[in-house]
C-alpha cells in the first residue's frame, strides 16, 4: 500500500512540473483570476519583454476592487479608477482573456464569481493577485494569493515558483451553538493562534463543524486562512461540494462530470497521514465573536471584556497602540459600544447565505437611526437572488438599501470609506488601521452580529434577537 | 522586471520596532490606483508619515533625519496582510534594499525576493541587539552579506546567519528574475497542460 498522503500533498504533487534542487517547485496553475488593481503592471511587464499570454483560456478577469457600488451605469468618476478599469478591459481584449467588467451580468468580487460560475473546481491550483484567493480552498483546491511579479509569471508561463509550505490541520469538533456561524469559527481560531500563527503553513480544515457547514460557510472560513498567516486553507470535497458545483455554467458536464467526480472522490487525507502541526478545538467553546483591535487575531467572544496586555499574544507596545487607535481600553465591555457604520459584504460574507442571515435578524425591526449601513452583494448573481428570495423586501421594510456588487468598504478603494474615528461593524476580513478608510475603526464580526448592531446601534449579542 | 544585483550591503539602518506592520500601513489601498510601477516610495507608510493635511508627522521614524540607510529593521510579523506587491515596490522605490525582521509574512517575503529586496530573518534576540545598537548610535552600520548569508552589526561585530534557498540566492546575486527561466520550460509546460483534466 502506498504511504498515507494528505489532501494538500495529493493536489500539490499533481501540479509540479519540475522540482528545483534547493529551490522552489515549478507549479502548474489551472485557473488564474485577475482584477484591475494588481494586473496592469504585470501586462506592462509582458509588453516590455515582448511576450504574450501562454494560455489565455485559463485566466479570468473581473472588475471589483475599485468599482463604485451605486450608479454603476454611469462613467466611473474617479479618473485613476477609471484608468485601471479601462486597462483591464484593454488587456483582456488584447490577449483574449474572458472579462466580466462593470455592468456585465456576471460581474462581482473575484472570489464570489469564480465558484458561482463553476470556474473553481476541486483538485485545482488557483491563484490571483489578491490574498483572499484562499477562499477557493473550500472546494478542495489549492488556492492562494500572489504578487504582481507572479501574476506576470502565470500569464507568461501558466506556472509559478513556490516552495512547498508545511502542513497544518485544524479540526473543530462538536456542534455549533445557536447564533454561531462560520465567521465566528474562523475568528475564534485566529484569536487562538494569532494573526501570524499559521505563517509558512497550508491548512486543512477538518472535523464535524466544517463537514456540516454549507459551501458558503466553508468559503468564509478558507477566505480568512490568510488572516492567521497561512498561504491558504482547504476542505476536502464531499457531497455538498458536488451538489454546489453540478449544473454551474463552466462545471464539467455529462461524461466529463462523471470522470471528474471519480477523481474528486480520491481527494481526501488518508488515515494516518501526518501534518507538521495540528490543532483541535471544541465547537461548544465558540460564541459569537467580534474583534476589538487592529489585527484579526485581536478578537474574542462578544460577551467578554477587552483583554489586558498580558492576556494577548501581541507585544505590550503594539497592543497599546492598537487599543489607542480603536479608542478602547483594557477591561472595557464590548457589548454596548456605540456603532456608526455597518458593512455587510466582501468575499468573506457577501454571499446569499450572509444576506439571509442578516435578514433573519432585521426582519420586523428597524435600522437604528445612528447607523449608516452599506449592504453590498458579492456579485450580480447574489443580488438577483436577494431579490428573488424576497430578502430585499425584508431589508427595505427595515429601512435598509441594497448597493451594487464590488469590494466596497472591505478595502475602501472606491468612495465607500468609513470616516476617520467612526466605528464600523464589518463582515469583511481585515481590521487594520485605515483599512476601511483613513482613521476608520473596524470591528470584524459575522452577518448576525452586524445585523444586531445595525438595528440596535450598539454592539449587541445576536442571540438576544434570534427568535426561538 | 530586472533589479539591481545584491551581494554585500553595508549601510546604516532605519529602526521600526513595531510588530505586525501590515501592508495596508506600508501602502494604503487608495494609492494602488496606478497602472505603472512609479512613484510608490512617496506614499510609503503614508498615514504614519503624514498628517491628513500633508504635513509630515514629526514623531514618525522616516521623518527623523537622524536615521537613514538602505536597510529597514522591523518588528515581528512584518508585511502581513494583502498580497499587494505595491508594498514591496514602495519600500524599494523609497530606497531600501533589505528588510530585517524576526518574522515575515509569506507573501510579502516572496514579493520582496521577486523584486530585489532581500528579507533577512534573524532571531528575536539578534533583532533586539540591532535595535540596541541603533539606539546607541543612529549611524551604526549593518553588513548584509548574501553570498555568505550573514548579517553583522558592524560596531559590535556580532553576527548571525540567515536562510535563503539556493535558487533565490542565485537569482538575487545575479539580478535575474523567474520569468526567463519559466519561459525556457515552455515545452515541458505544454505537455503538462495537455494532460490536465480541466
Ligand atoms: S472583498 Fe476585500 S478581500 Fe475580497 S477580493 Fe475584494 S478587497 Fe480583496
From TrEMBL, chain B:
Q: In which pathway does it act?
A: Amino-acid biosynthesis; L-leucine biosynthesis; L-leucine from 3-methyl-2-oxobutanoate: step 2/4
Q: Which one GO biological process term can you cite for this protein?
A: L-leucine biosynthetic process
Keyword check for Amino-acid biosynthesis: yes
Q: Would you name any one GO CC term?
A: 3-isopropylmalate dehydratase complex
Q: Which reaction does it catalyse?
A: (2R,3S)-3-isopropylmalate = (2S)-2-isopropylmalate
Entry's EC annotation = 4.2.1.33
NCBIfam families found in the cross-reference section: leuD, PRK01641.1
Give the protein's recorded name: 3-isopropylmalate dehydratase small subunit
Amino acid at each position: 500500500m502506498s504511504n498515507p498522503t494528505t489532501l494538500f500533498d495529493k493536489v500539490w504533487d499533481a501540479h509540479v512540473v519540475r522540482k528545483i534542487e534547493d529551490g522552489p517547485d515549478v507549479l502548474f496553475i489551472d485557473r488564474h483570476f485577475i482584477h484591475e488593481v494588481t494586473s496592469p503592471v504585470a501586462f506592462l511587464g509582458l509588453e516590455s519583454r515582448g511576450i504574450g499570454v501562454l494560455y489565455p483560456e485559463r485566466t479570468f478577469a473581473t472588475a471589483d476592487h475599485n468599482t463604485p457600488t451605486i450608479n454603476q451605469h454611469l462613467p466611473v468618476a474617479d479618473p485613476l479608477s477609471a484608468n485601471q478599469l479601462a486597462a483591464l478591459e484593454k488587456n483582456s481584449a488584447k490577449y483574449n482573456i474572458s472579462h466580466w467588467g462593470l455592468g456585465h451580468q456576471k460581474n462581482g468580487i473575484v472570489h464570489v464569481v469564480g465558484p458561482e460560475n463553476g470556474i473553481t473546481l476541486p483538485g485545482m491550483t488557483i491563484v490571483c493577485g489578491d490574498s483572499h484567493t484562499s477562499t477557493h480552498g473550500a472546494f478542495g483546491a489549492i488556492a492562494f494569493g500572489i504578487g504582481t511579479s507572479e501574476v506576470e509569471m502565470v500569464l507568461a508561463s501558466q506556472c509559478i515558483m513556490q516552495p512547498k509550505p508545511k502542513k497544518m490541520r485544524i479540526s473543530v469538533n462538536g456542534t455549533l451553538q445557536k447564533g454561531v456561524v462560520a465567521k465566528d469559527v474562523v475568528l475564534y481560531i485566529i484569536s487562538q493562534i494569532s494573526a501570524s500563527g499559521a505563517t509558512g503553513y497550508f491548512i486543512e480544515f477538518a472535523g464535524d463543524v466544517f463537514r456540516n457547514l454549507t459551501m458558503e460557510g466553508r468559503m468564509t472560513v478558507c477566505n480568512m486562512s490568510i488572516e492567521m498567516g497561512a498561504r491558504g486553507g482547504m476542505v476536502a470535497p464531499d457531497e455538498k461540494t458536488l451538489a454546489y458545483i453540478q449544473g454551474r455554467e463552466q462545471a464539467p458536464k455529462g461524461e466529463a462530470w462523471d470522470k471528474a467526480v471519480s477523481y474528486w472522490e480520491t481527494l481526501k487525507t488518508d488515515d494516518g497521514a501526518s501534518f507538521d502541526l495540528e490543532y483541535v478545538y471544541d465547537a461548544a467553546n465558540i460564541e459569537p465573536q467580534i474583534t476589538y483591535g487592529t489585527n484579526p487575531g485581536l478578537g474574542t467572544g462578544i460577551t467578554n471584556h477587552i483583554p489586558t496586555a498580558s492576556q494577548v499574544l501581541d507585544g505590550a507596545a503594539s497592543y497599546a497602540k492598537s487599543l489607542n487607535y480603536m479608542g478602547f481600553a483594557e477591561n472595557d465591555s464590548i457589548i454596548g459600544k456605540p456603532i456608526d457604520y455597518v458593512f455587510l459584504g466582501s468575499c468573506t460574507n457577501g454571499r446569499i447565505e450572509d444576506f439571509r442571515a442578516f435578514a433573519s435578524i432585521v426582519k420586523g425591526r428597524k435600522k437604528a437611526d445612528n447607523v449608516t449601513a452599506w449592504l453590498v452583494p458579492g456579485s450580480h448573481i447574489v443580488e438577483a437572488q436577494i431579490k428573488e428570495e424576497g430578502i430585499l423586501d425584508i431589508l427595505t421594510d427595515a429601512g435598509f438599501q441594497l448597493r451594487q456588487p464590488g469590494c466596497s468598504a472591505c478595502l475602501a478603494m472606491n468612495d465607500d470609506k468609513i470616516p476617520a474615528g467612526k466605528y464600523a461593524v464589518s463582515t469583511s476580513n481585515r481590521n487594520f488601521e485605515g483599512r476601511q478608510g483613513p482613521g476608520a475603526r473596524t470591528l470584524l464580526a459575522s452577518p448576525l452580529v452586524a445585523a444586531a448592531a445595525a438595528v440596535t446601534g450598539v454592539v449587541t449579542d445576536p442571540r438576544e434577537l434570534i427568535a426561538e | 522586471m530586472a533589479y539591481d544585483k545584491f551581494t554585500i550591503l553595508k549601510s546604516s539602518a532605519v529602526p521600526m520596532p513595531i510588530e505586525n506592520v501590515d501592508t495596508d500601513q506600508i501602502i494604503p489601498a487608495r494609492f494602488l490606483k496606478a497602472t505603472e510601477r512609479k512613484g510608490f516610495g512617496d506614499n510609503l507608510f503614508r498615514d504614519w508619515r503624514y498628517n491628513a493635511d500633508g504635513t509630515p508627522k514629526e514623531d514618525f521614524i522616516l521623518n527623523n533625519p537622524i536615521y537613514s540607510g538602505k536597510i529597514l529593521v522591523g518588528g515581528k510579523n512584518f508585511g502581513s496582510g494583502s498580497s499587494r506587491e505595491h508594498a514591496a515596490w514602495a519600500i524599494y522605490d523609497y530606497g531600501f534594499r533589505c528588510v530585517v525582521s524576526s518574522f515575515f509574512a509569506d507573501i510579502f517575503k516572496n514579493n520582496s525576493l521577486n523584486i530585489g529586496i532581500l528579507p533577512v530573518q534573524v532571531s528575536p534576540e539578534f533583532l533586539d541587539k540591532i535595535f540596541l545598537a541603533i539606539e546607541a548610535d543612529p549611524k551604526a552600520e549593518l553588513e548584509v552579506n548574501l553570498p555568505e548569508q550573514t548579517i553583522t552589526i558592524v560596531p559590535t561585530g556580532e553576527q548571525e546567519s540567515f536562510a535563503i534557498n539556493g535558487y533565490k540566492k542565485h537569482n538575487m546575486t545575479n539580478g535575474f528574475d523567474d520569468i526567463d527561466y519559466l519561459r525556457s520550460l515552455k515545452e515541458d509546460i505544454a505537455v503538462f497542460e495537455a494532460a490536465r483534466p480541466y
